[in-house]
Amino acid sequence: MTVTLYAATTNPGKLRDFSVAAAESGFVIEPPPDFKQISPPPENEPTFAGNARVKALYYSRFIPGLVLADDSGLEVDALGGEPGVRSARFAQDAGYEPRGTGPGLTDDERNNLYLLSRLRGVTDRTARYRCALAVARDGQLLLTAEGTVSGEILPAARGNGGFGYDPLFWIPQLKFTMAEISLEQKHALSHRGRAFRALLPRLTQLTH
Known about the structure:
Layout: E1 3-7, H1 12-22, E2 27-30, H2 48-60, E3 66-76, H3 90-94, H4 107-118, E4 126-137, E5 140-153, E6 169-171, E7 176-177, H5 183-189, H6 191-207
Parallel strand pairs: 1-2, 1-3
Antiparallel strand pairs: 3-4, 4-5, 5-6, 6-7
């Protein structure tokens, strides 16, 4: 039996990652119908887990069926865990506009440039990606899970795949960045893949 999970996100990279993670699991990841018509909730929680719960509960009141929400991002040790829950808005929060780059920068590119500017001259480049997942239905929280992957921040971007900070996130055991590996490799070791695998046995038990 195939079960649909409605992923409460408009981020195509996240939808792609979840679809790969769900392959051969008996679950299908779909964007919710008319998702863009639903006003988003505030994401003011101080933790990834808190924001994932808020989003899952909120959207499950509008979307029939099982709603999967995530909150994820990058924690850099030398920055005291920043950008953390503000990963997607890191440069925006700081009002950062890089000089000499011209118009047309994406939010991801601006965030990466701001991160590099903050780490200029810093020798400790250790970091981790963290993902928290929550599943809800009809305003009731059903399941939660988390996953992390450790790595380092490179001084320059490498690779054209992935999204977010992937071109800067170096995986020492593979000697590649997250933007240089296949989707299958990414699922096997990424924070999002690990969180989904932690969720899967309980999700299967709940729905089968």
